[in-house]
Amino acid sequence: MHRFASALAVAALLSSTAVAQVQHGDIILMSTGAGAGIFAIDPSTGAETTVRAGFTVRAGTIAHDNRHLIGLGGTSGNVYSFVRNGNYTTVKTFTDGAAGGIAVDQNESMILAQTTANRLIRIAADGSTSTLTSFLAAWGGPTAICRDGDTGHFIVGFSDGRIAEVNRQTGYKKTITTGLGAVAGVAYVPISGRYVVATPSGIKFVKRDGTVSGTLFYPDLGGIAVDPRSSWIYAIERTTGLLHTVLPSGTPLAPKGVAKRNYRGIAIWGTRQVALKTSGVAGTTAEISLDFRRSQRANYCVALSFANRPGIVIGNVWNRINLAADPLFFLTVCGGLPGATTGFAGKTSIGGLAKASFEIPALPVGTRLYVGAAAVNGSLTGGLDFMNSEVVRIEAR
């Protein structure tokens, strides 16, 4: 067993009992038109819970705090923040027309893909906005976005069938591939580093070099999401109500039928248990927020590594901490490095929360550090509660 798991298994002797959260891991579907709203689907049974009915939402992502869904208004492109009971607040209003997607950056800001205005907008934590980059009119406007968990940059899909990488700091853009068909969603797969793209003809698997390595033919997809722990892929057909589950190898499982609506977005609740706030500049502090709602007053551990693959398998092949067992991992896994890290081991609060931090080291610009964490929970597979890792890209001053 890797040292990360061993240290936490020993700590389990002192850990309190975890409290399960009903909606953790639920598939969140967002729809427009007749039957508009936000709906939670149990991925095991297909059972549905209405989160918010009658509210037009085109796309969304899990917020930095892991406890809100950031959803986009249907025609306005407004940004809303929803809690689990369906209540919401308005994060930002826009008059630029529809937006196609939103992603969270390493500095806690959000990147909004504005389809009509044909650009990416950065929404800072204080609500101020700035343009990260604009696109050629021929590309047809951005219709989907995700953050690349390998590089920290953004992967953007367009209505003309291309996907492109956009530098998170400079906005520099380069086309990865074209000819996919109008992109309805794009997501990053941690176990392989590939992207999965939802198109009118189905799911396409795209490598970073632009190679399209396979297609699953599902009609008229409305969105796609990936569970960062298992790398399982979930895609929803826009009008038929079929929810597809696909293994990261590309093997499809039997689809589940949900209510027929005009689905435009999909997300997985509880998938940002590790969140970062950092500029990535050497000598500054990277703040880590941990949210283990299922593991309250539980012992936890944080670790760093220089890579996120092949990952550390916990319990079975579909439970994988997305860190590499490299020298940096072993240096930091049992409490961190004195003087360079704080809070890398401890106990979560009664709400399952914890804070940690580390000083950004003086490494070459572009170097990437990966941050992961787990909490002890004997009721879960492998005895550990974990979900995502986050990438920190070292940036220039």
Any overview of this molecule?
The longest helix has 9 residues, at 3-11. A hairpin with a 4-residue loop joins strand 1 (27-32) and strand 2. The strands form nine sheets. Strands 27, 31, 33, 34 and 35 form a five-stranded antiparallel sheet that branches. This protein is mostly beta strands and 397 residues long. The radius of gyration is 20 Å and the shape is globular. The chain has helices at residues 3-11, 327-332; strands at 27-32, 37-41, 48-53, 57-62, 69-73, 79-82, 88-92, 99-104, 110-114, 119-123, 129-134, 142-147, 154-158, 163-166, 173-177, 185-188, 195-199, 202-206, 212-216, 221-226, 233-237, 242-246, 256-257, 262-268, 274-277, 285-291, 299-305, 312-314, 316-321, 341-342, 345-347, 353-359, 368-376, 384-385, 390-393.
| Number of domain modules | 2
For the sheet with most strands, the description reads: 5 strands, antiparallel
Would you identify the regions where 5 or more consecutive residues have pLDDT less than 50?
1-22
* CATH structural architecture of the largest domain: 6 Propeller
Q: Tell me the distance between the termini.
A: 40 Å
Rounded mean pLDDT score? 91
